[in-house]
Design brief:
extended, 23% strand, alpha+beta, Arc Repressor Mutant, subunit A
């Protein structure tokens, strides 16, 4: 950050970053945008626009027809780090990017069923993790052997999100092993007690597995190229570091549990390059 920028107050820099957000994503900005977003006065909004022009004279010009400052061809953000996914998420939340200066862009985000979590139960589990304690949970398993919810004691030590559901990682006192429990399936808690089990002994949680993904070789060269772009691959590959405890969910969500050489390759656009090590790590998890 330059000397001029380093002297800016945090609130001032936030407004200048907002100016750049509007310039970058909305194609322009005016005083009204600052006033409506920050609740500042007209003189303050004018001062911010003037200050931005003085600090970055090559970034904007005033469009008399649109009555807005618009970005120049040489526009280079000084405060904003453009976040495409964040921008689309903002749109999906129906937060108008256009606002007073333009229409809201049409957007649709496919709804996903909510998985409600009992706040009281979660609060007790959080306490158990913090205190390194054990707790009894009323848990509904999907196991054929346990068609009804049962009380079972666990010693929780961490939380994890698999992209769809939140889990608590814990020592299970019934199976005498570390397992993950879907929090939305915990229907009650009781009897917090000291625990002798340490999360540091959970080797599958501590172990990180490097998964090297490449485009499915059965795709055409052009299709492989676009898949590499889709998955932000470098030199035709992307290496992701996954906790071994969550490798099962990663395997399913990425469609890696399907044979890469069977059927239409478009159904398995990415495959695992280091398959032997990957399968070995999966095998260590056992069956579920």
């Amino acid at each position: 950050m330059s000397g001029a920028q380093s002297d800016l107050r945090w609130s001032n820099e936030r407004r200048l970053e907002f100016l750049e957000f509007k310039l970058f994503w909305d194609g322009g900005v005016n005083r009204g945008d600052l006033i409506s977003h920050f609740g500042v006065s007209v003189p303050q909004a004018s001062k911010d626009l003037t200050q931005y022009q003085e600090l970055h004279p090559n970034n904007t010009v005033y469009d008399k027809h649109k009555k807005r400052y618009v970005p120049t061809a040489a526009f280079t953000p000084a405060y904003l780090k453009p976040d495409p996914v964040g921008f689309l998420t903002r749109l999906a939340g129906q937060e108008a990017v256009g606002g007073e200066s333009g229409p809201v862009l049409p957007v649709y985000a496919m709804p996903v069923p909510r998985r409600p979590i009992d706040a009281s139960a979660l609060r007790v589990i959080v306490e158990a993790v913090r205190e390194k304690a054990s707790v009894e949970i009323l848990y509904q398993s999907m196991s054929a052997e346990r068609p009804e919810p049962i009380w079972r004691r666990i010693s929780p030590h961490a939380f994890g999100f698999d992209g769809f559901r939140w889990h608590v990682r814990a020592w299970c006192h019934i199976s005498s092993s570390f397992k993950d429990f879907i929090i939305s399936r915990i229907m009650g808690t009781r009897d917090l007690q000291p625990s002798l089990f340490d999360g540091a002994d959970d080797s599958c949680w501590r172990k990180l597995v490097d998964v090297k993904l490449i485009p499915n070789p059965r795709l055409s060269p052009a299709q492989q190229s676009v898949i590499a772009r889709d998955y932000d691959m470098r030199d035709g590959a992307a290496t992701l570091r996954v906790r071994q405890a969550f490798l099962y969910y990663f395997n399913r969500h990425m469609g890696l549990d399907k044979p890469a050489d069977d059927g239409d390759p478009r159904g398995t656009p990415v495959v695992v390059a280091n398959r032997q090590a990957y399968d070995a790590a999966l095998k260590q998890l056992g069956t579920r």
